[in-house]
């Protein structure tokens, strides 16, 4: 007979342990097999016992030693196996033997193989009578909500009775209690007993509910440090965003209040609990317990970015004052300084023949390598006009280096963040960006990208120009992921709208739309599999004008506003920013086709990803993914085939929508998963859209069609070797920290 409390104590002693006692004087466990386990998976049994076999890759890992055999632990494990079967409803299960001599096979002097044979599993115990007492006085709608879709339930009409599992029994009691408290029954308790009849293999289930009175929220109290810098009234004000005096008590409101207080950003620890209920007034007080964190902090770090299209080394730093001038105003000063090479470190040593004698005698000052930096100051004012409003202003100065251009300039942004719901925010802002753009040369003495291609005003006479972009932006974001760095459940969605020019002045008039949707679902035994998916699309609309030939065309957009794709966090079939309309800046047959073009960005974007992540062992994961993407020269469209390359390259179901498949490995660390992805682009579609920088005429260019230098055609035949996405290589790899999405 099972009563009220769980009988899984023996199992609990074995959970969370990875191996037997680690002593070098004991033999290694080289193999562990469980035979005859049909109704219960052998892999699940192995996770519930202490002893484990030494993995095959142990000699390759210097940080993990072999698993050693311990007789006492193994004898206890044999009992755990029987107990685990009982917990799964198989109370008549028997092992052929529980003796050492029958289950341990010596393999020399320093190794053993373990064998467990299940003699019989027996018939499963099924749920018989199912009775719930104690909810007669509750409203019918409350009863139905408490009893809906329980882990352990009686058989429905026409179906086989469910198997009685102890885990389901405990989960049912906990879930019913949670639902009752969510309905306002703050002192609700759920107990009961389950009587197992071994003769009939039937479990008689009795659930006893003690709901108690239904309560409303009372006053909010704060427990804080001895000399707090944050006034308790400010804490109470934030908690009242989720807990309103007089509302029905619910534990989800307590969790929301805890999250709201923690998001104030000045506490190292926050806990929101209910106090002792007032049974006469039928109210429950709320206690907010906080511990203040340091109000000033400094963060320093560095990193290296490696990609076939870009290499960069950088240092980062940030200083934050979370109580600047009092009132919990936040001031953050941060920066990133680095040196970038496009595409590789070898670009730094490129030289030119300036006098025509065939000797490379001068450095190419336009070669794409140089200093990059970003320095920013951000000020945030909480409680701007109302509790849930925050004023945020940011001033940024930066110098950047891209494949088609380099730039120096700055950005000014100011707006108000509104968070009406947990993890949901609206951020309308005004933005002003001012840049000096310079067209970039390639690796040899190639043509500089013209300023018109960069979106410079028509009167720009040199390879540089100054531009200003003035626009409004509205960002809506709803984040319900369980973990921002390595999500396994939930979803994320955002929408960015930008409206530039017109009464806002600036050099460009445009409308830019960019929605992003991601979803995550974990399933399987021990939640081993995670299915992740993403859809991201965008379009950039500019005014229609009449050119000198009388044609109606769209005005050029600024290159800083255009879309680029490709890279480890984008469409992984292309290297960083290499999925985009291209400009051809060289026709030298001695130059690799990839180096003859540079990406200039597009006015449309579509990215999709489906990724299956599977836990292998420990912190090691395997991932398989399928990515698609396009970046077109014109606005995004869903129409039929177009003869105009600018329109066809932007068609969702067109021939410039590329696909890639790949595999990846993940190793989970405290800072996020270390990720290695290998991708191969499928030969479905046309070459990349390439435009002549002077005439704007479209063309195509073949490539080597290789994978990391293997399997391609000879260099002399590359120019006419057309395939999907040519002239880019078919394979890519990415090494980074954090999931792709």
From TrEMBL:
Span of domain Bacterial surface antigen (D15): 375-682
POTRA domain location: 27-119
Entry keyword Membrane: yes
GO CC terms: outer membrane
Domain of life assignment: Bacteria
A Pfam family it matches: POTRA
PANTHER family: BACTERIAL SURFACE ANTIGEN (D15) DOMAIN-CONTAINING PROTEIN (PTHR12815:SF42), SORTING AND ASSEMBLY MACHINERY SAMM50 PROTEIN FAMILY MEMBER (PTHR12815)
Protein name: Polymerase
Annotated organism of origin: Archangium violaceum Cb vi76
């Amino acid at each position: 007979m099972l009563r009220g409390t769980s009988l899984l104590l023996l199992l609990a002693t074995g959970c969370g342990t990875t191996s037997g006692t680690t002593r070098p004087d004991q033999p290694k466990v080289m193999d562990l097999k469980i035979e005859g386990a049909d109704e219960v998976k052998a892999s699940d049994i192995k996770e519930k016992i202490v002893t484990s076999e030494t993995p095959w890759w142990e000699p390759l890992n210097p940080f993990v030693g072999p698993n050693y055999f311990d007789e006492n632990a193994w004898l206890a494990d044999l009992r755990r196996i029987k107990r685990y079967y009982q917990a799964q409803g198989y109370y008549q299960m028997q092992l052929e033997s529980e003796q050492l001599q029958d289950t341990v096979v010596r393999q020399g002097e320093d190794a053993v193989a373990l064998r467990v044979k299940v003699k019989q599993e027996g018939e499963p115990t099924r749920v018989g009578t199912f009775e719930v007492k104690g909810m007669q006085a509750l409203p019918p709608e409350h009863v139905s909500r408490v009893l809906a879709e329980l882990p352990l339930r009686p058989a429905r009409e026409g179906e086989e009775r469910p198997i009685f599992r102890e885990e389901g029994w405990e989960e049912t009691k906990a879930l019913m209690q949670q639902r009752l408290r969510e309905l306002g029954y703050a002192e609700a308790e759920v107990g009961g007993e389950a009587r197992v009849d071994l003769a009939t293999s039937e479990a008689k289930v009795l659930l006893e509910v003690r709901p108690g009175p239904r309560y409303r929220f009372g006053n909010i109290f704060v427990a804080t440090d001895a000399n707090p810098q944050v006034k308790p009234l400010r804490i109470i004000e934030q908690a009242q965003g989720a807990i309103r005096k007089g509302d029905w008590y619910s534990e989800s409101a307590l969790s929301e209040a805890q999250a709201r207080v923690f998001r104030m950003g000045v506490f190292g620890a926050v806990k929101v609990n209910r106090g002792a209920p007032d049974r006469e007034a039928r109210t429950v007080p709320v206690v907010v317990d906080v511990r203040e964190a340091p109000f000033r902090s400094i963060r320093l770090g560095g990193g290296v970015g490696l990609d076939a299209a870009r290499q960069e080394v950088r240092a980062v730093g940030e200083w934050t004052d979370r109580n600047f001038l009092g009132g919990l105003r936040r001031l953050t000063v941060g920066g990133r300084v680095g040196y970038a090479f496009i595409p590789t470190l070898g670009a730094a040593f490129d030289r030119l023949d300036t006098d025509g004698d065939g000797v490379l005698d001068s450095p190419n000052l336009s070669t794409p390598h140089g200093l990059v930096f970003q320095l920013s100051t951000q000020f945030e004012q909480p409680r701007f006009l109302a509790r849930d409003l925050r004023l945020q202003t940011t001033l940024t100065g930066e110098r950047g280096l891209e494949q088609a251009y380099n730039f120096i300039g700055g950005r000014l942004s100011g707006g108000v963040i509104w968070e009406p719901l947990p993890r949901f925010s609206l951020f309308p802002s005004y933005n002003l960006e001012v840049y000096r753009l310079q067209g970039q040369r390639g690796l040899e003495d190639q043509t500089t990208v013209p300023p018109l291609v960069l979106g410079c005003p028509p009167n720009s006479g040199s390879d540089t120009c100054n531009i200003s972009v003035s626009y409004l932006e509205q960002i809506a974001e709803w984040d319900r992921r369980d973990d921002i760095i390595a999500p396994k459940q939930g979803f994320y969605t955002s929408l960015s709208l930008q409206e530039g020019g017109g009464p806002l002045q600036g050099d460009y008039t445009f409308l830019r739309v960019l929605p992003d949707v991601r979803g995550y679902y974990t399933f399987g035994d021990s939640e081993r599999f995670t299915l992740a998916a993403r859809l991201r699309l965008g379009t950039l609309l500019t005014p229609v004008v009449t050119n000198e030939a009388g044609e109606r065309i769209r005005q050029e957009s600024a290159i800083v506003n255009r879309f680029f794709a490709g890279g480890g966090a984008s469409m992984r079939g292309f290297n960083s920013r290499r999925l985009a309309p291209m400009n051809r800046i060289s026709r030298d047959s001695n130059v690799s086709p990839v180096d003859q073009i540079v990406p200039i960005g597009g006015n449309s974007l579509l990215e999709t990803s489906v990724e299956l992540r599977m836990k292998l062992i420990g912190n090691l994961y395997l991932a398989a993914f399928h990515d698609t993407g396009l970046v077109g020269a014109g606005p995004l469209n869903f129409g039929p085939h177009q003869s105009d390359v600018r329109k066809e390259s932007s068609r969702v179901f067109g021939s410039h929508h590329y696909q890639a498949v790949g595999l990846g490995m993940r190793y989970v660390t405290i800072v996020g998963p270390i990720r290695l992805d290998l991708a191969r682009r499928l030969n479905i579609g046309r070459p990349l859209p390439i435009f002549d920088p002077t005439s704007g005429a479209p063309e195509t260019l073949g490539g080597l069609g290789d994978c990391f230098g293997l399997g391609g055609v000879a260099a002399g035949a590359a120019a006419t070797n057309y395939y999907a996405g040519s002239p880019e290589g078919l394979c890519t790899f990415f090494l980074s920290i954090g999931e792709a999405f």
